[in-house]
Amino acid sequence: MSIPREQAPWTQPPRRRVLIATPVSERVARLVTRHDAARLRPELATRPTGLADALVELRPHTLVVGVNAVDGPALERWATAVRTDPAEAGRDRPLLLVRRGTSLAAVDLAAAARHRIEVRNTPEVNARHVARFIVDRLFDPLGHAPGAESAGAATRTDRPGVLGLVGAGNINSRVAREGVARGWHLAVHAPSLAARPATVALWAAKHRLPVDRIHVARTVEDVLDAADLISIAAPLVHDGPRISAGMIDMRHVKSFTGRRLVSVSEPHVFTDRALVDAYDRRDLEVVIDNAPRFLGPVRELLAGRIAEDGGEPRRGFTLCSVAMHSPACSNDLDQAFLAVVGRADLDDLTGNDLTGNDLTGNDLTGNGLTGNGPKDDRHDLADRRGDRRGTGRRAVEDPASDGSAVDKHDVVVVGGGIVGLTIALVLRLRGHPVRVLDAAPADRADPAAQGTTFAGTNGRHLSATETLPQADASRAGVLDRDPTHGGWRLRDPESLSEPERAWAGAFEQCADRPGLHAVARDLVIALNRLGLRGWEHLFALADGGDGLAAGCGLRWDARIPRIYLGPDDLAAGERLQRSAGGRVVRLSRADLVRDWPALGRSVPLPDGVREVTAAVEVDGYAVNIHDLATVLIDRLRAAGVEVRAGTRVERIETDIETDIETDIDGNLDGNPDGNGNEAGHEIGNGAGSGVRLHLADGSTLRTGWAVVTVAGRDLQRLLGAAWPGAGAVAHLLGLSLTLPNPGLRRPVKVHAGDPLGVINVTLSADGARIHVSGGFGYLGTAVRAAADSGVARLRAVFEQAVAGLFPTLRRPDGSVEMLDVRVCERPATPDGLPLVEAVADHGGRVIVAAGTNAGGTVQAPAVAMLVADLLAGTPRCATLAMAGDRAGLPPIRS
Questions:
Q1: Taken in order 52, 54, 60, 65, is the CA torsion positive or negative?
Q2: What DSSP string describes 385-454?
Q3: Which of 294, 530, 565, 765 could crosslink 610 through cysteines, CB 3.0-4.6 Å?
Q4: CA atoms within 13 Å, Cβ hemisphere of 179
């Protein structure tokens, strides 16, 4: 009997293994089957003993559960099995349990702590879906009371009254917002609000609720006495000062004179007598929604009464498991747990992983980059596809029968920006023959003709919290306001295409998904941290090795101060920086005056003048990005990699079923047939190549694999409207100014708020100039000229702020002395995560690495590692959260 794939032995190189022991959507199930690092066992959700046995057998490092009961003995067996595994000797890899959802009531948290198992849930992710369920049941005009078929017997919810809320978390806050919008007043009971009345205003502000509509009830009984409708969404707590188990008893049910009660809490918040009395009250509509295993005891309790009612609960009393079972809710929960799993996956990696397991001795001078190192024994994607078809035939054959050639394929990287160049370098370090095609001309004289890396000014900052997902709650409606009012709108909304409107709509939805935003932010921080570790390896800072920074005059500044405007922003910023890890040092206003004497004290912004308060200094680098990219190009060429400028790829085609026979002994100079690259000729590695790149000059380049790093309109053009990620990457415009240095000795960041975001200040290589970049404006996928008028307004706001930051550069007329002004297109996704995936429609031979949300520089080494592993056929679980069809991306394709 063949072993089911989910039970097969782990075959990938030593890395974090993931067991998913809960049902997931068909989409995620399909993705997981392609990853050797993950196993899907949904049947274990209802088999606690089977789960414990599987943990011992499979020894995963990450366990994903839903409503599974995970007890202490199971956790102990799991921890022991992994930590006594000889393959884990010396690794001490952290164990992680991820709850696909919110409640942790079924997990023995004390046992998890004893066995050093980190437990994470995905709070708030399901809140909007559960809240919608509650709202639909509460405000249904007919309801389900006996006789509700007639209008006279309907439960009246059209006349505003008092909406009672037991619990003030993410679910009920959304219910409250809906109730207020319908004209209802609120009676709220939550221990945190009752204990500290001063927090009510903060709660109301956070959830955009009017304080004058809110009454905080001291007890549950007070809420039921006052309310016409009740929503119960409180966590189940069995002990401590905020115990909720049994908090609703028969007295409360009897005192409630309203007509409708909806609960999504575990039924244990009711006493048994309260449930019986609620059932017996025929005038009361009750909906209790939860997992089937929690509803089972309720059905047993009411079995006699249900039997008397014909075998089904009476009309108006509903036990169901519906609130979290909509496709949209399932997709959000899947994306959330994949992001948590991906973060753990990335945190395991080091900068040394750039070169893979067998090529760690390579340096960056060209030595060791020739591809003549030891043969890599890992199979590539084509090999794995051949294995899955059961043909027993390799999809790729070495051209040399004596085994002297490295089993690698020719790879073309489309896009010569910092991400594309870093990917090319990492692939070359791993032994792949690579070439890079860049549409921009080699002459950098016209910034408008360049991509993101060279179009902006010669400065970038790299830190753990660089370019975090933009769509948070504070940015609700930001695309509807122009820059003079703190918004990102650059174009007339009527001029947006359907895909551009879809992107804007997805961004607005992401701003109202704080749970997904939180896990996406954590994943981006992990991606940034891995990128920093990768750059440290490439720069060879620690050991003085012959890295990128050696002998090339490249300026990089370690440690970056982040200046905040106002005490609240400072406190929030410092919390974020400390949560991201690394060394965080508070700098006072006096420190800023001493070390950055040229900085002004106040910054004029659309919402008023803001005062420079203080700063926190964090780990990171400030680099001259043009110089860094040039160094990368030089090192690649020294290693025999062709970097061809002025070469535009118009279209990509793939022969999925064709065997690849790649000549890797040379042909990296772009003239493999010796006839030059003339229009109409096919160039490449001979017949049978898997990917054909149709170039703008009419020629065709054939290769084994293509890695696409371009974005926006170019990405849509190359992959077409049928690709699930079509329309996912749009462009945000930013501004870059080059100014005389007013006396700065170090780089600095200023958190200015919208529409400027974080203003980055970087010194030129000689220190004579400063490069200042900032600003956000939504361009979409149109040409830049479509936003000229909006850019002019954004520039006016930016220059006014810069004049406040550097008062000594201000001219008598109030303008700023500027040496250069540039507009830069930043590729962005609505949810703030990049796209990194092997495109299924191209048989996995086309890999997309795009949409880095202006974080391409810091993330480049991390993205390169993910691409290299995709190319090797050993994809990391982190890429599951970066797929083109994930939740949070536009639902309408281009």
A1: negative
A2: HHHHHT----SB--SSTTS-S-S---EEEE--SHHHHHHHHHHHHTT--EEEE-SS-S-TT-GGGS-HHH
A3: 565
A4: 33
3-state secondary structure of 882: helix
User: Same CATH fold, 456-626+728-828 and 127-323?
Assistant: no
**Residue pair 470/830 in contact by the 8 Å Cβ criterion:** no
CB atoms near residue 783 (< 10 Å): 10
Separation between Cα atoms, residue 326 and residue 132, nearest integer Å: 11
Q: Which stretch of 373-387, 465-479, 556-570 has the lowest confidence by average pLDDT? A: 373-387
Distance CA 883, CA 835 (A): 6
CATH of 5-122, one of 3.40.1060.10, 3.40.50.720, 3.30.565.10, 3.40.50.880: 3.40.50.720
| CA dist., res. 149 & res. 341, Å (int) | 48
Global pTM value: 0.87
Question: In this structure, what token pair is assigned to residue 594?
Answer: 């001493």
- Which CA distances in Å does 13 have to 9, 662, 872, 877? 12, 25, 11, 13
For strand 700-703 and strand 705-708, is the pairing parallel, antiparallel, or unpaired? unpaired
Considering the domain 127-323, what is its CATH architecture?
Answer: 3-Layer(aba) Sandwich (3.40)
d(C-alpha 676, C-alpha 669), whole Å: 10
| Residues 6+ positions from 289 with CB-CB distance below 8 Å | 130, 133, 262, 263, 264, 318, 320, 321, 322, 323
Q: How far apart are CA 844 and CA 613, in angstroms?
A: 51
Q: Hey, what CATH topology would domain 456-626+728-828 get?
A: D-Amino Acid Oxidase; Chain A, domain 2 (3.30.9)
- Helix, strand or coil, per DSSP, at residue 489: strand
Helix (H, G, I), strand (E, B) or coil at 378: coil
Strands, E assignment, 597-671? 602-605, 608-611, 614-623, 642-644, 649-654
CA torsion sign for 350, 355, 359, 364 is negative
pLDDT tens digits for range 523-532:
999 999 999 9
Q: What is the DSSP letter of 729?
A: -
Inter-residue contact 104 to 61 (CB < 8 Å): no
Phi/psi of residue 500, nearest 5 degrees: -70, -40
- At residue 12, the pLDDT reads 54
Among left, alpha and beta (phi > 0; psi -120 to 50; other), residue 567 is alpha
Residue, of 854 and 873, whose pLDDT is higher:
873
Residue 688: HSE in the Cβ half-sphere, 13 Å Cα cutoff = 11
| pLDDT of 841 strictly over 80 | yes
Classify 241 as helix, strand or coil: coil
Quick: pLDDT tens for 474-519. 999 999 999 999 999 999 999 999 999 999 999 999 999 999 999 9
Dihedral (CA of 17, 833, 385, 402) sign: negative
How do the domains of the chain map onto residue ranges? 5-122, 127-323, 456-626+728-828
- Collapsing DSSP to helix, strand or coil, 871 comes out as helix
Q: Does 806 have pLDDT greater than 50? A: yes
614-623 and 649-654 as β-strands: parallel, antiparallel, unpaired?
unpaired
Q: What is the pLDDT, as a whole number, of residue 552?
A: 57
Q: By percentage, how much of the chain surpasses pLDDT 90? A: 64
Cα–Cα distance, 422 to 535 (Å, whole number): 10
Using CA atoms, how far residue 343 sits from 77, 82, 519, 606, in Å, is 25, 20, 9, 36
Query: What is d(CA 38, CA 42) in angstroms, rounded to the nearest whole number?
Result: 13
Distance separating alpha carbons of residues 691 and 412, to the nearest angstrom: 9
Confidence grade of residue 551 (pLDDT, cut at 50, 70, 90): low
